[in-house]
Every structure is written in C-alpha cells, then in structure tokens.
Specification:
With about 150 residues, the chain is mostly beta strands. It contains no helices and 12 strands. It has one domain: Virus Head Decoration Protein, Chain: A. The strands form 3 sheets. A 5-stranded antiparallel sheet has the order 1-7-5-3-4, with no helix packed on it.
C-alpha cells in the first residue's frame, strides 16, 4: 500500500484570531495585574509585564497568540501570554489591505476600533496619528475589514 506525498504547497487556510500561521519560536510573558490582553493584538512591555499599546512611542513586544483553539478571547491579568515576535499570525484588519504592504498597529481607540488591531495606515484624525508602523507586512489582500494573515519580524 503506497502513501501519497504532498508536492504542492500554498498559504495555510485562515485559522482563528491570534492563531499562529506557522511554527516559529514564541516567548511567554506575564500580563500585568491591571490588564487583560486580547489575543491577535499587538502589545508592549511595562516594568511589571506586558500591557496594551498606549502610544506612538511604545516598543512593540509582539502579537498575543492563542496556544490552542479553546483559549478565550483574552489573557487575564497575572496570567502568561504567548507572544509571537517573528512569523505568521492571523489578526483583525480594520481596513482593506494589499499583500506586501506595511502593517500599522492601533495605539489609541477610535470609536469601536480596538487598540492593538492592525490596519494599512496611521489613521490620522487631522491632528494625531492613531496607529504606528510595525515590522510586519500583510501576507494577503483584503477588499474590506476582516481576518488577515500577517508576517511579523520584530
């Protein structure tokens, strides 16, 4: 009885928000006592752990990932979060995007839009940028908001 050998490869099918799209190494950091960190979002460091993004000068720590499909939508305060610093992950994009474009991470809220989401521009409100460019690119094209695969290289 013979076995078939896969000889064609393509992009992985869409997974879930915060789902890792490859098997690159991850780091685990503790969430501060005052925060909940949403999966699939960029975050930053503080003296006592990781926190949500708070401004344009934040150092990006990574993208919070699910360790399995049964994990919740957030990592609770004082718990460990799995961070992807390099590799592919699924994130929520607020805008349309093009494969290869630079990823921007939201640092201030804008109505119902969430800090840590990704988008294709700085979302300037006329006086202030509300998103910052990160060392990441889109790995596919979307014609509207939705789940997108991004390649992170922090």
């Amino acid at each position: 009885m013979g076995a078939s050998i896969q000889d064609t490869y393509g992009k992985r099918p869409k997974g879930f928000l915060g789902g890792i799209a490859n098997s690159n190494p991850l780091t685990t950091k503790s969430v501060t006592t005052a925060e909940q960190i949403a999966v699939g979002k960029f975050c930053t460091f503080s003296a006592s752990g990781i926190i949500n993004l708070t401004g344009l000068t934040n150092t990006i720590a990574g993208v919070v990932c699910k360790s399995d499909a049964m994990d919740g939508a957030t990592v609770e305060a004082n718990k460990n979060a799995t961070l992807l610093e390099a590799g592919n992950v699924f994130a929520y994009c607020e805008t349309s995007c093009t494969d290869g474009e630079t990823v921007y991470a939201r640092v201030t809220s804008n109505g119902a839009l969430t800090v840590g989401n990704v988008r294709n521009d700085v979302d300037n409100d006329g006086t202030t940028d509300r998103a910052v460019a990160v060392k990441a690119t889109f790995e596919e094209t979307l014609i509207g908001a939705g789940l997108v695969q991004i390649k992170v290289n922090l």
